[in-house]
Design brief:
The protein is mainly beta. It is 8% helix and 34% strand. It has two helices and ten strands; from the N terminus they run βββββαβββββα. A five-stranded antiparallel beta sheet has the order 9-5-7-8-10. It has a three-stranded antiparallel beta sheet with strand order 4-3-6, with no helix packed on it. Strand 3 (53-59) and strand 4 (68-74) form a beta hairpin.
């Protein structure tokens, strides 16, 4: 995908850019004198992505609810014995507050959420029990406040027909 965002104030273009996916961003600013429809000089940030991007709720520094930040991260790729799942439902529990506040230690930054349910979109070569398209659920792993999560195959359970993704993530 490719996007182009105008920067209204050209002085902003001279400041450092901090982005969660900085390794996948290339900057190209409009040439000086490039005019918009209002006759103002505009600069642009252009981003080309080589890998698919997903949205996730991430905590970079422990704190209150304001510590949760919507970020863009690369969609995970399956490693050994993993399946990548497109989440349809994510469990929301009080333990997430403990991780966010730092009462339970986890390396930062973290993506919150410990339960999820959804559809397998990719598997590593050594995964034999699940295939792309299977509906699955899991619990006890950080990372389900995201659009996708890479989950060890031995942590997945199939969702029976007649059980919704929301019920599976809550079970």
């Amino acid at each position: 995908s490719h996007w182009r965002t105008p920067i209204a104030d050209a002085s902003v273009a001279e400041k450092p850019l901090s982005v969660a996916v900085a390794s996948r961003i290339s900057l190209r600013f409009g040439e000086s004198g490039s005019m918009n429809s209002h006759g103002r000089t505009e600069s642009f940030i252009e981003r080309s992505e080589s890998k698919p991007i997903m949205k996730a709720i991430q905590v970079k520094q422990v704190g209150g609810p304001e510590a949760m930040e919507l970020v863009e991260l690369p969609v995970p790729q399956p490693k050994g014995n993993e399946a990548v799942v497109k989440l349809a439902a994510s469990g929301v529990n009080f333990i997430d507050v403990y991780f966010r506040e730092g009462r339970y230690k986890a390396p930062l930054p973290i993506v919150l959420g410990q339960e999820g349910a959804g559809v397998v979109t990719a598997v590593s070569a050594d995964v034999k029990l699940f295939k792309v398209g299977d509906r699955v659920a899991w619990s006890g792993l950080l990372g389900s406040y995201a659009e996708y999560e890479a989950v060890p195959a031995d942590r997945l359970v199939p969702i029976p027909q007649g059980v919704s993704d929301h019920h599976a993530a809550a079970a």
